[in-house]
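In response to reviewer comment 3 from the previous cycle, which asked for concrete evidence that the modeling workflow produces usable outputs, we include below a single protein chain processed end to end. The sequence was submitted unchanged, and the resulting C-alpha cells are shown without manual editing.
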Amino acid sequence: MVGKGKKNNKVKEKLEERKEVPWYIWGIIGLIILGAVIGYFFKGIGTYTYEGLAFTKERYGDVVVSHYSYLFKDKISQELLRYNLYLRIDPRENNVPVEGEVLFSKSDIILSVDTTYLQQCSDSIIAISMLQDFIKNNGFNLKTGVGQLEQNDNRTDIPFVNCETHPNDLLIQLKEGSETKIVQTDGNGLCYEINVNDCEILPAVEKFVIRSIIDAKKTN
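The workflow returned the following C-alpha cells.
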C-alpha cells in the first residue's frame, strides 16, 4: 500500500508540473497584451474626425501637425490629384469665427495682403505661404497685391487691390482687424476678409482653409 501511495504522489506531481505555465510564456503573453493596449491607445489619439474630415496627427521633430488629404480633379487635364493639408493647430481647438460660407466660385483668385501690419507678426511667412500654396496647388490662378494704398507707393509691379477696386473678382483680403475672424462681406461670395488681431494670423488662415474645404464638400 505504501508503494502504491508513493506512485500516486509522483503521478500527481507530474500532472501539477504539466499544469504550471513557464514564467517566460507568461512574459510573452504579457508583452502581447501590452503591445495591443499601447497600439490601440496611440491609434486613438493619433486619428480624429472634424466636420466629417478624417485627420491623422503626425510628429515632425518637435512639431505635431494634423494631416488631411483628399482627391480633386484638375480643371485642365481632368486628372485626379491628391492634396495633402498639414495644420499646425488642431482644428477642434481653432475657435476663429466664420461669418458666411467660404466657396471659391471662380478659377482666378486675388490675394490682398496688409503687409504693413502683418510683417510684424512672427507667423506671417508661414501663414501666407500656406494660403498661397493651398490656392495654387488646388488648381486656381493666384494674383497678389497690397491692401493699403500707401503700401503701393506708386509701384506698378505690386498693385493696390481690395474688394472695392475689384468688385467683380474673387478676392481675399488678409488684414488687421479689431477681432480675429473670417467674414464673407458680399452676398455673391466674391469678397472675403481674413481679419487678424493680436497677430493671430496662423489660426485665421488655417480656419479659412479648412472652412473652404468643408463648405466645398457640402456644396458638391
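The two ends are 90 Å apart (CA to CA). We consider this sufficient to address the reviewer's concern, and the full set will be provided in the supplementary archive.
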